[in-house]
Amino acid sequence: MIAVPRAQLRRPLLSSVLHILSVLFVFDLVFAVTSRSLFSACASLALVGLVAAVSNAKYESLREPFVFTDLSLFSQLFSHPRLYLPFLSVGKVVAIGAGIVLVIAGFIVERPVLPGSRALVWLAAVLPFALAFPVAARLPLTLDPYVDQCRNGFFAVFVAYLLNGLRPATFRRFREVVAAGPFATGKPIRCPDVILIQSESFFDARRLGDEVAPELFRRFDDARREAVWHGEITVPAWGANTMRTEFAVLTGTESFSLGYARFYPYAFVRNKIASLASWFGRCGYDTVAIHPYYADFFGRDRVFPLLGFARFLDIRHFASASRAGPYVADASVAEAIVAELEAADDDRPRFVFAMTMENHGPLHLEQVLPGESSSRHTLGEHASWRDLTAYLRHIENADAMIGRLLDHLRTSDRETVVCFYGDHVPALPHVFEKLGVNPQHSDYFIWRNYGADAPERRNLAAEELGAALLRVVQDHGNRAEQPHASEKAT
């Protein structure tokens, strides 16, 4: 009952059975290793409490409970602690620390009891584990963690997702779905350079209310007025889990179709799969990914070659780049994109997928100086708005990045298509609650420096964005006869 969202008291029989079997398995396993019954009982309860506490911290920030694929990110807790540890409150850290101390003390104090048969002890551990599999398979689940937890309880759902998600059928379904993606065939009629930008936590924050300064989005508005398509984009992530949106855009696969793989699709990529990068690579493009962070984050260093990227410029490429807060500035990413385009062979177009990092939280760790808020919103200097001020400061830089890049392309003699989108809304639940809003959608535009047409507003899902981009790339119709942006500028 400590996990949020709270589960109903009366739960389905199968969920109660699965919970009991799971705790019993942990107890039997610890007892088989330590031969300490009291310690094993305390350790079992402590483990459930620990996972529940971590789940509560995640839910408080991201509105999603802890799920089994989050275990794959456990190593990143130590390699990139700034991205995770600040979301644990002092109270949770103290409680976790105290629990660990008590469990260790219990191990030292309790004397081991030598069992009569080691084989029977291990059999007692294997039996609940074996029984848990068929129970988990029969538990009715929606794969909406909130709904499932409210119905079945946190630990039963966590274990059911874990056991069902690791079944061979989950991997088979993943392979079948991605194999049917839209980027396995086709070639462009013309071959412009293509830039795809995933902007960290970007969305049109003016939807929060009139308090947000509209001039923060001046260059974004310019881009939309000149764009072929623009609108809101429905993404399969909220506040974090960038890789879900990233995978949907790059592969054109709808998140819910992936089954249990939807929570961390990169963990299920084991072979080459069709993507935007492989599509452009097959068409003769040089495919490069740019991300001013560590290549192993989300396992991109392993996954991106399987998606068809020939090169990956990570944090090492930005060793001397300027920072905005703790991360590489969006301005530096814009310069890296321009440098890639200028270095391109005239006979070989470029597909550049750039992921920004500047606006990545935790925002509450950033310093906000007195007076900074007034140029970005009219809500005042109260501490409750500091995270919003920090966020809008980075939005201002993202807007400048758009302007810098499109200004360069307007004078370039290379035909270029730019697709810009936000991966998810920022993790600002307390700000949104105080404003009485609940933003869900990000924003996008598809722009090019050749052809001309009235911009068309279309709201899309993340998995539809790649196909929309290819449609603009392949569309030559009347626009092919119209002047290049550099010609219009003269």
TrEMBL record:
<keyword id="KW-1133">Transmembrane helix</keyword>
<feature type="transmembrane region" description="Helical">
    <location>
        <begin position="83"/>
        <end position="108"/>
    </location>
</feature>
<dbReference type="InterPro" id="IPR000917">
    <property type="entry name" value="Sulfatase_N"/>
</dbReference>
<keyword id="KW-0472">Membrane</keyword>
<feature type="domain" description="Sulfatase N-terminal">
    <location>
        <begin position="192"/>
        <end position="454"/>
    </location>
</feature>
<dbReference type="InterPro" id="IPR050448">
    <property type="entry name" value="OpgB/LTA_synthase_biosynth"/>
</dbReference>
<dbReference type="Pfam" id="PF00884">
    <property type="entry name" value="Sulfatase"/>
</dbReference>
<feature type="transmembrane region" description="Helical">
    <location>
        <begin position="12"/>
        <end position="32"/>
    </location>
</feature>
<feature type="transmembrane region" description="Helical">
    <location>
        <begin position="120"/>
        <end position="141"/>
    </location>
</feature>
<dbReference type="InterPro" id="IPR017850">
    <property type="entry name" value="Alkaline_phosphatase_core_sf"/>
</dbReference>
<keyword id="KW-1003">Cell membrane</keyword>
<feature type="transmembrane region" description="Helical">
    <location>
        <begin position="153"/>
        <end position="170"/>
    </location>
</feature>
<keyword id="KW-0812">Transmembrane</keyword>
<protein>
    <submittedName>
        <fullName>LTA synthase family protein</fullName>
    </submittedName>
</protein>
<feature type="transmembrane region" description="Helical">
    <location>
        <begin position="38"/>
        <end position="57"/>
    </location>
</feature>
